[in-house]
C-alpha cells in the first residue's frame, strides 16, 4: 500500500469551488486560498438560520497507544461511507499543530484512503490560523510587559503575571525562562515560559466563540496577571482586545477542504485534548449542521479527554448534543493495554487481547454514563487475525453495544459501509438520554473528584499545597462556578502514562489550577502533564524534505 502522503499526492482533487457549490454554499460565501482550500463566511448563518440542524455523530477512541487507534481515519472514512450510501455528510476535524507534525506523531489528517486533503498543506501552514492565534497571544504578552515597563498604572504584581508566550513547535528549552534581562531598557526581569500555541487560551476562545462579538467578549475576559492586592487583570484592562480581534478576523472563519473521495470537510481549530479542550471550532460544527444532514466530528485522544470535554464544556456553552458516539478501537492498541510490547502487537495473543478489552469496557461504561447510543468501530489492520476480530465483536455483544469492522484506511468509504449502516441504525432505533456528568455549580473539588472517580476510575484525589491555595483563591474571586478542563496524560486513564488498561485503586494528583476566564473554564493540571511538549530523540522532522520539483516527502 502507498504511504499516506503518496496517496494524498496521487489523488485528483476537485476544485474547492465545486465542493462548496455541492455543499450548498454560494460563490460570495467562500474566500479561495488557492485551488483546493477556502474560508467560509459567517454570513452563511443568516441565510440558513431557519434550516433544521443535521445529526451529530461524535467520534472518539479508547486510550491512545503507540500502536495506533485510528480515530481521525475512522471519522473521515465514516463520512465517505455515508456518502456512498447517498447521505449528505460533512466531516469536521481539528487543524494539526506543527509541534506533533515535526515531533513524534507526524501528520494528523487521517491516513491511507481516509484522509482530508490537501494533506501537506493541512499539516503545515494551512491557512495561517495557528499563526494568527500565536501572534494575537504574543501581542497580548508584549502589551502586558510594556504596560509594566511604562509605569504599571494597573499596579500589576510582576510575580503574579500568568500570561506566558506561545509558539507552534515542541520546544522544551523554553518551558521555563527568565525574561527582561539586560538592564531597564530591556524590560522588567521576571520568570516566565512558553506553551505550545494550541494550548493558548486564545485557541480555546477561537474554538468556543459563536461569532466575532462573542470572540471579542471572551478575549476581553482573558486573565493575564493579578494586582498587588490580588485582583485579576484582563486583556480588556490592557485595551488589547481590538487589536487581537483584528489578527483573528480571518482565523474565525472555517476552512473548507475535501476528503480523498471529494466530500466536504471543515478543518478548523486545533486545541490538544490532553492540555486543552480538544475539539474543533463550534462555528465549523454549527455551520456543517446547517449545511448537511449528517456531521461527523471527532475529539482529541480518548473518550476520557476530548469526548468528556465536548460533553461537559462545549455542550454547556453551545447546546450542541451528539446523537451517537462512535468509539474507535484497534486490535493492536487493545493488545498493548493487555501488556503486549509495541514490537509484538501484530502477533495473535488472545489472552492479552481479552485483558486489554478492560480499557474498551471502561470507555463504553463512561459513554453510557452520558446517556449516548454507542457504536464500537473496530479499526482493522492487515495483521489482525479472524480470531482476534471475532473476540472483540463478541466482547461488544456481551457489553450490549453495537460494533462494526472498519477497513477505511485500506479501502476508503467502501471499507466503512458496515460501520455507516450500524451508525444509521443506532440513530434510528437507540435511545439518546444525553446529559453532562456534573453540575458546574458544584465546588471545584467536587467537580474534579466526580471526573476522577466516575470517568478515570480513581479511588480519590490529592492536591499539592499550591493547588489547594489556588482553589481557595479562585473560589474567593468567583471563578468556581465554571466547568473544568483537566490536563492529563493521553496515554492512560490515570495520571501516570505507564499505567495501561483500566487501573483501579490509584489516586489522581492535582498539581495546579488555572483560570481560563475567556474560554470559560478552569484548567486542572494533573500528574506531570506539560503545556509545552519536547521533541523525541529522533524527531519526525528528520525525515521530511522537498524534492527539486517541489514535492514534499516524508510528511507522514
Gyration radius, to the nearest Å?
23 Å
> Using DSSP, what is the number of strands?
25
- Sketch the major β-sheet: 12 strands, mixed
**Total helical segments:** 19
Give average pLDDT, whole number. Answer: 95
Strand content: 15-25%
Helix % is 25-40%
Secondary-structure map with pairings?
Elements: H1 4-10, H2 16-23, E1 30-32, E2 38-40, H3 44-47, E3 55-61, H4 71-84, E4 89-93, H5 98-102, E5 110-111, E6 114-117, H6 119-123, H7 129-149, E7 156-161, E8 165-167, E9 177-179, E10 190-192, E11 194-196, H8 201-208, H9 212-220, E12 223-227, E13 232-234, H10 241-247, E14 255-259, E15 264-267, H11 282-291, E16 294-298, H12 303-318, E17 324-329, H13 331-337, H14 350-369, E18 374-379, H15 386-399, E19 402-406, H16 408-411, H17 417-429, H18 444-456, E20 460-463, H19 465-476, E21 484-487, E22 507-516, E23 521-526, E24 545-546, E25 552-553
Parallel strand pairs: 3-16, 3-17, 4-15, 4-16, 8-11, 17-18, 18-19, 20-22, 21-23
Antiparallel strand pairs: 1-2, 2-14, 5-6, 6-14, 7-12, 9-10, 12-13, 14-15, 22-23, 24-25
Helix pairs in contact: 4-17, 7-8, 7-10, 9-10, 13-14, 14-15
Description of the molecule:
The protein has 19 helices and 25 strands. It is globular and about 70 Å long. Helices cover 35% and strands 20% of the residues. Helix 13 crosses helix 14. Strand 1 (30-32) and strand 2 form a beta hairpin. It has 556 residues and is an alpha/beta fold. The strands form 6 sheets. Strands 1, 2, 3, 4, 5, 6, 14, 15, 16, 17, 18 and 19 form a 12-stranded mixed β-sheet that branches. A 4-stranded mixed β-sheet has the order 20-22-23-21. The chain starts with a helix and ends with a strand.
